[in-house]
Design brief:
Distance between the termini: 73 Å
Number of strands: 13
Number of domains: 4
InterPro entries: ABC1_dom (IPR004147), ADCK1_dom (IPR045307), Kinase-like_dom_sf (IPR011009), Mito_struct-func_regulator (IPR051130)
Family: Belongs to the protein kinase superfamily. ADCK protein kinase family.
Protein name: ABC1 atypical kinase-like domain-containing protein
Radius of gyration: 33 Å
Mean pLDDT: 75
Keywords: Membrane, Transmembrane, Transmembrane helix
Shape: globular
Structural class: alpha+beta
Length: 659
Amino acid sequence: MNVFRFRAYSLLSTINTCRLIRRNLPSNSNTSTLRAIADRFGVKRRSRRFLRNYILANGLLFGGGSLYYFYYLTPKQRRQIKVTFEGLQRALRSFRIGFLIAVDYKYHFWTIPDTSPEYDSKLKECHTRAAERIAQGCIENGGLYVKMGQGMVSADHILPKEYTDGLRLLQDQALRRQRSEVSQLIDEEFGCEVSDLFSYLSPEPIAAASLAEVYEGRLKSTDERVAVKLQYIDLQDRFAGDMLTIRMILYAIGRIFPKFEFSWMIDSVKSNLERELDFKLEGENADQCYAQLSPHLKYIYVPKVFWKYTTKRVLVMEYIDGIKISDTQKLHEANLPLDEVDTKLVEAMAFQIFHSGFVHADPHPGNVYIRKDPNTTTKSNVQIVLLDHGLYVTIGPKDREALCQLWKAIILKDEAKMKQYSLALGVQAKDYLTFAAVLSMRPIHRPIHDMAILPDIWDRMSPDEQRAARAQGKMRLPSEKELLAMNPQQKLTIRKDFAAIFNDIEDSILRTLYDMPRPLLMILSVSFRQKIAKEEMDRIRLKAREKMDEVNHVFKQLPDKLILVLRNLNQIRSTIRDHGNLIDRHTIMARSAILGARKYETPQRLIKDRIYARLELFMFDLILFKDRMERWFKFKFFKVLVIFGYISKETEELIEQFQ
């Protein structure tokens, strides 16, 4: 009733005000316009006055009512209105950037064919400009956009180098919020003041990310030193709108550039972000991680969660003094060897993937700290501290066994088993080699004798065996006598038939060069000279681009949990590469996979099974040692080729593309 009375009083007051305004209103252009409109539609003088009064009254009533409504809203309701308008602004900014990028690509490649020498240089320039625009847009939009940009940086096994380099600055970017938002968030979550929970809370965050800020504090009840992780107060309000915008942008990119169609990833990304926004789930993940790793790996530590002070948007954990794993200078100064750090990190991640099945999906450098183990006095005292447990993936026993067996098959170069366990993990049969290469993050090279069969062996095969061999892509190799008897046209046909094998031989050279340390390639490239024909260069360029399509096709087939496992492996690979590749990551992962496979093969663990498992592990160690020695000899061989100038600078650049 009071509200009705107020509205009636406001309306009468507004009408009286309009009468006073009308009496004193000069005959300006606006009133003349109103009169002209009224004359046009045949409105009488009294009706004109009523129309003018009506418009002014409604305008004032709407404005005054809006101010009155906004004044009586709660802070949370005001924030939601603000988020809505800011969301429209972010969407318009994102579409503008997407439009500029699309025009840039279309304009520069309208008439340039894929095989043109200037294609690659133009493409790199466009990639660089696009990355700069995306990075700037992510910084201006903040929140989920920064998170998506950071995810693109970690996808350096899919995206062009120019994108990952240009977006790398986002790893140190985060929102900066007002101090009042901290008090407001604490009030919304706990219904009290900051001082009621903490005797001290740092005035500025000690760390900031795309989803939250971390403050140093002390609990008022126990005076314990803690890290207080506070989610940005409006993040959950803007989540749905921002995700819709990102989905539309990715869909548009896929329609314009089919090779960069990544909209299929958005549902997975949305699901993962929803989990990361739940800090109670993050606390549960932290406790489970430590419970599973600590009995087996004594050098792993996870900060304790203070559950009394933890909600969906606030997480309070034990404060850790440590060194970020990417800060190599401080690690050297603290006498923490990088090779030991890397070995323990790989062992921990391998244990999660192949044994426990509870995998940290985001172990980037900001989430891994290193310190000296306070409980150890031995020389090997490196302790790995795992932070940010918001995103985990659970791998069931069946998939875990398939991963172990697949890795074992990769080591043994057993293609039949590779195909079998790739199928078990949801990959199509024709893509098993690509998936094996993506999983191990090393090229899978098929031996030449597995593709071309000598004539005496082929002739002894039955017709059914020959048909099966052809179905697998194998061919009979002509004898020397048969080749000498061929005319030029027949020889040309044979060359075309065996083109795939010739290409594979050439690719194996590139793959071996890829295994060489990049600094050495860069140093020795001073003496490189061009030895590969132009048409072969064009073919390799096209093949490098085709590889990206193959990898993208494989990723579309994988369930979300395997994509997160690959994300884990890629983060670890990136960290070890930045440390200078001081350890053989592949061997450590392989040994862990073999032990995991053996556990599934003989779960009863009798004494004879343990002895057999040790013997089998010894044999695998020999195989891995042989693999390392082969790569060492190839390295020396190509060093000789470099000295004599048989490898060019352009080849080194192509190896980078082939990666």
